Amino acid sequence: MKKLLKDFDTLDGSLLIRSPNWLGDAVMSLPAIKGFKDLIGSASLLIATPQKLSFLWTLCPFVDEILEMTNSKNIFENIRKLRNKKDIQMAVLFTRSIRTALECKLAGIPLVIGYGRTDQSIFLDKRIVIPKSKEPWHQAQTYLFFSSSPRGKSRTLPASSAVT
Q1: Chain segment 58-98, per-residue pLDDT in tens
Q2: Secondary element (H or E) of residue 50
Q3: Can you tell me the distance from the alpha carbon of 146 to that of 18, in angstroms, rounded to the nearest whole number?
């Protein structure tokens, strides 16, 4: 985890976070994404999100820029959008999709971080693995674990299901 934290300390470009695709999941990810913004400080936080969720992210003062992604059959449209953002140094994927990981890799993003126990992991540079003992968590708790992992600190919702 210390190596992962070091990656955030040296960030001088943008951090791209690929938002979950569904409204409920995106709302549950808000505290975790705010945690990433706290971690990167003055570096830019860019949210890549489905067009249907872009309004939610405009309401978040910690989001610096929003990039609307399409669900078209042609992944090259999203790759082009990502490539046009030349200062993206790192991507954190809140999706478990092979497609979103592949888009980031083909866009040339130098460091792609995501869930470690999924099919997308072959396209990741760094993996955050949710311990099997924690897997029945509520999705919001999983997102918080995801954002706290680079710091080595735990942020919790209810004490009964806290990260230890």
Answers
A1: 999 999 999 998 876 778 999 999 999 889 999 999 988 88
A2: strand 44-50
A3: 13
